[in-house]
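Anyone up for a design puzzle?
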């Protein structure tokens, strides 16, 4: 299989998993027929329905040709959990995933918006970023957090060259993962602050 086909196949995994999750819905106990229909319908929508002569999958590759390995695995974990009826990730694992994505986004993207003179994207060409991620993964694993395992896979994706980009940043984060992480991390922080405030009120 050529590198181009590998890159295209990989880039389509994340949108397929996300769309299948959307079609399954929020029903905590979806039936087998619904699961199968959701998976097949996601394939149909992405690859069969044309828009302007292109499939939706092709348009999404133009929009984001390098979905991060992190986002792809998180979507696959969520999808397989729904299909199997078993939660592979606990709440603290998901919280770590969103917090990591939010921090990575705040470090990486302000430079692209011209808000800082520092160029953190260049870290992805050398050993700095891999060392930082290795440290983060090790700390998470020592705490028993399963997201630490996910942080090991970007190294494999980077070495195997499954993305068009060869910068390590692209295996870690992308705009979709960043946006979702920022929103969910903000919600988590607001809830935590609210609970602390409520606790203070109760104590007083």
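Challenge accepted. My sequence:
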């Amino acid at each position: 299989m050529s590198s181009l086909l590998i890159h295209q196949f990989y880039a389509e995994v994340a949108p397929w998993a996300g769309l299948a999750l959307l079609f399954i819905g929020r029903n905590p106990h979806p039936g087998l027929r619904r699961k199968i229909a959701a998976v097949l319908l996601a394939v149909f929508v992405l690859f069969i329905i044309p828009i302007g002569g292109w499939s939706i999958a092709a348009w999404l590759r133009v929009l984001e040709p390098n979905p991060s390995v992190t986002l792809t695995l998180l979507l696959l974990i969520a999808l397989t959990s729904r299909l199997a009826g078993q939660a592979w990730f606990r709440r603290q694992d998901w919280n770590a995933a969103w917090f990591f994505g939010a921090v990575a986004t705040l470090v990486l993207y302000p430079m692209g918006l011209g808000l800082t003179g520092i160029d953190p994207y260049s870290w992805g060409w050398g050993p700095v970023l891999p060392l930082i991620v290795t440290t983060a993964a090790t700390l998470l694993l020592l705490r028993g957090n399963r997201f630490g395992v996910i942080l090991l896979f970007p190294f494999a994706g980077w070495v195997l060259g499954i993305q068009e980009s060869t910068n390590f940043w692209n295996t870690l984060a992308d705009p979709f993962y960043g946006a979702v992480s920022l929103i969910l991390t903000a919600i988590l922080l607001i809830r935590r602050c609210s609970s602390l405030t409520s606790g203070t009120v109760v104590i007083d």
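A detail worth pointing out: The chain has one domain: 3-203.
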